[in-house]
Amino acid sequence: MGQLTLAGKSIDVNDEGYFTDSSQWDEEIAVEIARQLNIQLTHDHFSVIHYLRERFEEGVPLTIRRVSKSGVCDIKTFYQLFPGGPLKISSIMPLTLKK
After folding, report:
1. CB atoms within 10 A of CB 33
2. How many beta carbons lie within 10 A of that of residue 87, not counting itself?
3. b/e for 1-16, b at 16 or more Cβ within 10 A?
4. Which pLDDT band, with edges at 50, 70 and 90, does 37 fall under?
5. Which residues are 9's β-sheet partners?
6. Nearest by Cα to 90 from 11, 9, 33
7. pLDDT digit string (tens) for 48-99?
């Protein structure tokens, strides 16, 4: 376990760099992570991120198919918003491995 500084905040992370406390997440941190991935977050990005965060908190497994069926965005848009692995990239921004 360690710590990272994101958006001027100290964040608890595990050995792989994932948050260990989901309450430390906020939109400023998501913007900073996205910046490091060369993504500029828009309203559409945040719609997906918030959807994934809500499902994660409910304990629902995250899948690309579930995102496309949600009505938040279709698969093509999901790949455009988060190129190179949309589920992995979009889920890094709002989620933790442990609650």
Report:
1. 19
2. 18
3. eeeeebeeeebebeee
4. confident
5. 6
6. 33
7. 999 998 998 898 988 999 999 999 999 999 999 999 888 888 876 665 544 4
The letter for the amino acid at 51 is: Y
pLDDT value for 42: 96
**Cα–Cα nearest to 29, from 96, 91, 85, 94:** 94
**DSSP collapsed to 3 states, the chain:** CEEEEECCEEEEECCCCCECCHHHCCHHHHHHHHHHCCCCCCHHHHHHHHHHHHHHHHCCCCCHHHHHHHCCCCHHHHHHHCCCCHHHHHHHCCCECCC
Q: How is the chain split into domains, by residue range?
A: 2-92
Residue 58 near residue 22, CB atoms below 8 Å: no
